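retry 2 of 3: previous attempt timed out while embedding 6-O-phosphono-beta-D-fructofuranose. Reduced batch size to 1 and resubmitted. Inputs unchanged:
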Amino acid sequence: MSIGILTSGGDAPGMNAAVRAAFRSLKMREPDCELLFFRDGFRGLARRLDSSSDRNVDRRAVRDIIHRGGTFIGTGRVPELLLPPEDAPNYADRLAARDDFLKVAAINLYQMHVDNLIVIGGDGSFRGARLIGEAFRAHFPRRPFRVIGIPGTIDNDLHGTDYSIGYDTALNNVVDAIRKLRDTIESHRRAIILEVMGNSSGWLALQSAIAGGAAVVAIPEVEETWDHDQIVRRLVAGVRRDYRYFIIVVAEGVLRRAGADWCESLRRKLEGDRAIEAHLGHPMEVRVNSVGHVARGGSPSALDNTLAGLLGSAAADVAQLGGLRPGEKVDGDVMVGCRGPHVIVTPLDEVIARSPRLVTRDSELYELSLKLMLAAEQPF
Ligand code: F6P
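retry 2 succeeded.
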């Protein structure tokens, strides 16, 4: 039997190191074990396999990749796998296309004798992987097949792991951007509104704002953090204390919930605020920037590569031993994750049901942000 690996969804730094770790661990235990790479995410499963997969991967394929960002086997999103809304005009056609995709993927996996498919990605990817697992079992009920998920997303929003591969690098990239912007806005005594990725969760924005020493952070999970009046009051408190500049970090999820013009309208409000103008002696200048996809780029951090090594190797253990240790079997589709320094295994259904894992008001990081950032009623 063979083991397939693919990366899916947004690329995350450290995915290459995870593929390498899975390869090395699998081969170390069983040198004859056959490994396949499926290229470009799930699309690589549903195409002609000679052009979209690499069979019998050998050590040369994973050489010189541990330091590279992105994913050398390619990734992608497959909107066709989403269940179409029932009132979609072409509902029946879309459903049929989805079934065809899944059937071709299942047949390809069967023909390649894949019994374990390692999928590195986020919750959207795991939803797709679960469908593929279900389709495989429906078409080939007598052939064992398991999906093993490895968390790889800069959003860090998966249930079943403290950290996802890519998050630490993205965090460092965003903090680096904040530090660079700090130089220029301090020189001009400006405020900057900096948009940060994270999908529907605020983890990346929140933690980078804390680590980068931002004055304000707005996250989708806590509505009062996006209130423009409250942000203005906080900046008024800042100019009264002779703050020279302000960094306002906003998670992209806020823009989805509060409207795409959230940054622009905050900019106008701050520039037009009379109390701020009175203290500065002129209107405040505000610029809007976005870290964008740069957050996902560059060499993975040491922490991401270590996590990738740990989880890639754990996925190999589950594929070959049926669990993390000999004799310790886990059932069904699963995801490997970390709890502190330990590897844990969680059923994929549970990961999907409880993701995205969002920031809550009693999250330690959120409570910390209230102590470390600018407050409208700051007592000092
Ligand atoms: O899930 C990772 C992520 O980078 C999100 O933070 C962001 O919302 C999304 O992917 C961007 O997707 P794309 O690369 O398709 O523009």
